[in-house]
From TrEMBL:
Transmembrane segments: none annotated. The gene is asnA. PANTHER family: ASPARTATE--AMMONIA LIGASE. The keyword Cell membrane does not apply. GO terms for biological process: L-asparagine biosynthetic process. Pfam families: AsnA (PF03590). Its main location: cytoplasm. Signal peptide: none annotated. The lineage of its organism: Bacteria, Bacillati, Bacillota, Bacilli, Lactobacillales. HAMAP family: AsnA. It comes from Ligilactobacillus pobuzihii. InterPro entries: aa-tRNA-synth_II, aa-tRNA-synth_II/BPL/LPL, AsnA. This is Aspartate--ammonia ligase.
Length: 341
């Protein structure tokens, strides 16, 4: 496909969705509405309205792996200001907890819609990102693995209950999930699979265990390489991770959530130095962390389309969200009974 840049798309043999497009749309609405209500209740989170864009000079936008550039624009009422469409709300949420006066063990969640124009397209990725972003206040003593593990188990329990709810309404369509989630570090994976790439390691461990919380992403491993990139100024790289599921229809690991305990001033300073990004300390958000003016929090994002795809056994994220795709890909998907919305 000349001139088109995206990751290889997997076309499962003899794939045929068990739900029509119309029924899929109804299932999407049911999953999204039901999950967010239960998730908010179980995690003690209240729903907030969130921005689609922020001013560049606040330092609130997420720079992801540090190479993706946000979609930006200027506005008539703020001459000289650059406005950016958010990549995620990782920093905005923490600041919102401060501004709105949330207490210990209270939190928020919001519907986050973003454009990541530099995303490589494949079965799991599009340039449109829709997720539940969430954040919760914790104490200094709770900045540890036990807290992280407990929250991950809580989220996994809600996902499993959602599987039961979907099975009740769409028994012919539900994709069944493993009963337990396992905790593994990125260093464990490098030690176990030294000859595999990071993504191949994720596939291997998820195929073996079913569901994994892969911990400690961002810093260098013993090999001197990183498992994956992470922005240095929101997650503490020693207390973060991704929730991954083995996804049988595509024979791949599917990342459903990225989350972690957020940086305190010590972790922020250290990680900015490692990333050669200490210039970010000029931003108000970073200064508040360095002066202990930001609450200590844990938070993350849960992919809405990814959850729908996972629970409904879909072959492509474009079956559960409306985005933009190269025409060649749309045509090829149609040949394989994959109907992109």
């Amino acid at each position: 496909m000349k001139g088109t840049i995206y990751m290889p798309t997997i076309f499962p043999k003899d794939y045929c969705s068990t739900l029509s497009v119309k029924d899929t749309e109804q299932a999407i609405r049911y999953i999204r509405e039901t999950f967010q209500d239960e998730f908010g209740e179980q995690m003690n989170l209240s729903r907030l309205t969130a921005p689609m864009f922020v001013s560049q000079d606040t330092g609130l936008n997420d720079n992801l792996n540090g190479v993706e550039t946000p979609v930006s624009f200027t506005m008539k009422a703020l001459p000289g200001k650059t406005i950016e469409i958010v990549h995620s709300l990782a920093k905005w949420k923490r600041d919102a907890l401060r501004r709105y006066g949330y207490g210990i063990h209270e939190g928020l969640y919001t519907n986050m819609n973003a454009i990541r124009k530099d995303e490589d397209l494949d079965n799991f990725h599009s340039i449109y990102v829709d997720q539940w972003d969430w954040e919760k206040v914790i104490t200094k003593d709770e900045r540890n693995f036990d807290t992280l593990e407990a929250i991950v188990q809580q989220i996994f329990k809600v996902i499993k209950h959602m599987e039961d709810e979907v099975w009740y309404k769409y028994p012919q369509a539900v994709h069944h999930l493993p009963k337990h989630i396992h905790f593994v570090t990125t260093q464990d994976l490098e030690d176990r699979y030294p000859t595999l790439s990071p993504k191949e390691r994720e596939d291997a461990i998820c195929k073996e265990l079913g569901a994994v919380f892969l911990m400690q992403i961002g810093g260098k491993l013993k090999s001197g390489k990183r498992h994956d990139g992470r922005a240095p100024d929101y997650d503490d790289w020693t207390l973060n991770g991704d929730i991954l599921f083995w996804y049988e229809p595509l024979q791949r690991a599917l990342e459903l959530s990225s989350m972690g305990i957020r940086v305190d001033k010590g972790a922020l300073q250290k990680q900015l130095e490692l990333a050669d990004a200490t210039d970010r300390l000029k931003y108000p958000y970073h200064q508040m962390i360095m002066h202990d003016e930001m609450p200590l929090t844990i938070g993350g994002g849960i992919g809405q389309s990814r959850l729908c795809m996972l629970l409904l056994g879909k072959a492509h994220v474009g079956e559960v969200q409306a985005s933009i795709w190269p025409q060649e890909l749309i045509d090829e998907c149609e040949k394989h009974q994959i109907h992109l919305l």
